[in-house]
Recover the amino acids of this structure.
């Protein structure tokens, strides 16, 4: 049985079908790239999986258990963690508190020292451990992204959803970021990552799914997907519009 | 250390009526009442940033429970019922409004007090027969003071406890970003509701305890929106996110308002409005935090 199954996920915003009957699945420990031109529905799909938005129809299943119709907090509790395309941190809380919350309110329900230890481990993995007591409001953009990833990791999730987590980094940071995600993947975490940076996709994802105008147009090995005429057409069509 | 200081301070405060004049005791009761209201308000609104103007809806309801039951029941029983009424009201209101964001919640909470006033007015005229009731409870001013002091202590103690609990952490996350809160596994509705009900129950009890001072009650007297505004200003003035902030805001402002409303009744509302705007714009985190920030700024300059 697959760890995460997306089954005909559909989302309509009024007349616009942002996600149109998308189906694919992730195996335990897999790292899968989710590609597609701007506005193709990638973030919306992530929102459907994490429960940020209710589905119009379709289902997602984690370990065979249906998540459709569940609230975001219930889905988080079930073991799905995510980061946001537009980074979201809690500016009035310390780094430690920012990260601790998923340990406290997630599946493991840690409290006290256990929660702090989990948070510290997560902060350590992204290289922020030495600033645990600082206020999150003072962080630079890249550190905010790190903090957000640490928060997702402290949930000790079964599936991690990354929405362009590598966007906006300089080349050095990008190399560090890729190394960090590879490390997470090698530690056994199942990851679904939305990414525009092909270098990162090639380096990290053996397999990708590609969306265009809400529909899935490819689900195959990365190399063949990037040479797939309909994938190339989708991207070219997009840049021709722009 | 604090396990000694707090009980001693509380005992000293409890002993004040033995030396205070009747006038001073009256002031003291008003002061402690607002300490309770501002602290209970901040229990929910401080961390979540849901600004509630419903304070007087609960406070007034508490007074009305006493007014309606004081002839048929023993006082302790009335207090129990008051707590139940407050919690039930908050549950209904919370379930229907805590999904509202920002300014809609503010407006709804304000409307709530008005709605309850109208409901009670309608009930009194059409069912009870007259508008206005008397409260005769066999209780002294000292008794009222002691009860309100106990309620204030419970409120601040409970807030300290919540601050260190999961609920407190959840509320602060909700105040910063509800989307992140939900995606971190926090059940938004349940957490907000819990805090709102606790806060509202205390507000309602405060109304019940203060009510014998009125002797005669009428909806227009009891449901005075100024109470809601004062509570917000006091809590924000002292800092709604600090344990002692609302209390420290309530004491000076209560005295200032007493003085102004007695000596300058005409400029009093203007002062109130100006202070409200001043606090919100200049010291969004409270005057205490603002002063601390200034001092820190100066130190850094000189360093
Ligand atoms: N809450 C919403 N209400 C209405 N329309 C929306 C909403 N969210 C997204 N859309 C629309 O759905 C479509 C898909 O948007 P989405 O953000 O999922 O694209 P994306 O693939 O993540 O794009 P990008 O690469 O730019 O991040 C777009 O046309 C967008 O305008
Ligand atoms: Mg997107």
């Amino acid at each position: 049985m697959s760890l995460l199954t997306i089954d005909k996920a559909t989302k309509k915003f009024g007349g616009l079908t942002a996600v149109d009957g998308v189906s694919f699945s992730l195996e335990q420990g897999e790292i899968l790239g989710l590609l597609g031109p701007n506005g193709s529905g990638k973030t919306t799909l992530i929102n459907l999986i994490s429960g940020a938005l209710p589905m119009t129809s379709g289902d997602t299943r984690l370990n065979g258990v249906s998540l459709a119709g569940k609230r975001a907090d219930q889905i988080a509790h079930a073991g799905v963690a995510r980061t946001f395309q537009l980074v979201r941190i809690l500016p009035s809380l310390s780094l430690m508190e920012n990260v601790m919350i998923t340990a406290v309110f997630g599946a493991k329900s840690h409290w006290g020292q256990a929660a702090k230890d989990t948070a510290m481990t997560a902060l350590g993995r992204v290289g922020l451990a030495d600033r645990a007591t600082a206020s999150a409001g003072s962080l630079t953009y890249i550190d905010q992204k790190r903090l957000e990833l640490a928060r997702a990791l402290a949930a000790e999730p079964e599936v991690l959803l990354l929405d362009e987590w590598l966007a906006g980094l300089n080349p050095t940071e990008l190399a560090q970021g890729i190394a960090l995600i590879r490390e997470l993947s090698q530690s056994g975490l199942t990851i679904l990552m939305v990414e525009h940076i092909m270098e990162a996709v090639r380096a990290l994802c053996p397999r990708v799914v590609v969306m265009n105008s809400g529909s899935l147009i490819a689900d195959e090995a990365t190399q063949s997907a990037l040479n797939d005429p309909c994938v190339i057409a989708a991207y070219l069509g997009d840049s021709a519009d722009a | 250390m604090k396990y000694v200081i707090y009980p001693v301070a509380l005992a000293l405060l409890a002993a004040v009526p033995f030396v205070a004049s009747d006038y001073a005791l009256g002031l003291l009761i008003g002061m402690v009442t607002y300490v309770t209201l501002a602290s209970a308000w901040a229990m929910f609104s401080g961390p979540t940033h849901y600004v509630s103007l419903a304070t007087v809806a609960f406070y007034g309801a508490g007074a009305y429970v006493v007014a309606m039951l004081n002839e048929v029941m023993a006082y302790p029983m009335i207090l129990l019922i008051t707590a139940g009424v407050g919690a039930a009201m908050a549950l209904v209101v919370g379930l229907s409004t805590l999904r509202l964001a920002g300014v809609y919640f503010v407006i709804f909470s304000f409307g709530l007090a008005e709605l309850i006033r109208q409901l009670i007015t309608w009930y009194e005229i059409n069912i009870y027969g007259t508008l206005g009731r008397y409260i005769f409870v066999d209780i002294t001013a000292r008794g009222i003071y002691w009860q309100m002091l106990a309620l204030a202590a419970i409120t601040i103690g409970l807030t300290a406890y919540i601050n260190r609990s999961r609920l407190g952490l959840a509320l602060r996350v909700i105040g910063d970003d509800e989307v992140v809160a939900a995606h971190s596994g926090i059940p938004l509705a349940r957490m907000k509701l819990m805090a709102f009900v606790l806060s509202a129950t205390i507000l309602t009890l405060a109304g019940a305890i203060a009510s014998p001072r009125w002797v005669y009650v009428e909806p227009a007297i009891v449901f005075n929106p100024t109470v809601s505004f004062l509570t917000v200003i006091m809590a924000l003035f002292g800092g709604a996110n600090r344990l002692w902030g609302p209390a420290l805001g309530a004491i000076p402002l209560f005295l200032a308002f007493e003085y102004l409303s007695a000596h300058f009744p005409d400029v009093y509302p203007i002062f109130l409005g100006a202070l409200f705007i001043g606090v919100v714009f200049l010291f969004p985190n409270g005057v205490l935090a603002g002063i601390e920030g200034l001092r820190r700024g100066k130190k850094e300059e000189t360093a």
The radius of gyration of chain A is 18 Å. Chain A is about 40% helix and 25% strand.
